[in-house]
Amino acid sequence: MYVDNSPFLQFGPNDHTKLFGVVLDSWTKWWAVAIYTLVSCGVNAFAGDSLVPFITNTIQDHKTVYIPYSKFTCLVIIQIFTFYSVVMSIVGLFVALTQIDFTMVRLVSDLVVNHLTTTYFLRGKVVDRFKYDAWLREQSATSLDDDSIDISVRSDTCESGTLLKNITAPTQT
Asked: Which of 6, 24, 59, 154 has the CB geometry, 3.0–4.6 Å to 1, for a possible disulfide?
């Protein structure tokens, strides 16, 4: 890259760097792309840090029987997040491969947002290796019990209004 004077290794606006056919030859254009990169990467990192655990631990976990939103709402959340992620990864790839300074802006944005969200998740947690090891041993001892699901119908009607009997049907997965 250095030998062939690749525009990827240049910093700031220049006549050789293009993004979607637009030459980034002024500071106004360069800053517009840099600010877009900073904001979109920040939003993407925050969405990944907040929505992915919700999707994985609440919606897709086979042990979670009850969900806080309707099934339709959960499906819409996942579909919108998937669409957003695909579009942002394609645009982000083009921006990141345009010039190294945009790659660095992207990296800084991701690191800052990940630091903030991780700090938020760590608040209130206490470092205690012995209690953690005891908790881990307890979890591994009961992991077989976690795979059985107790499906109990607590009401006389289900979502569709059909009359049901009070049934408890534990299943093994």
From this structure: 6
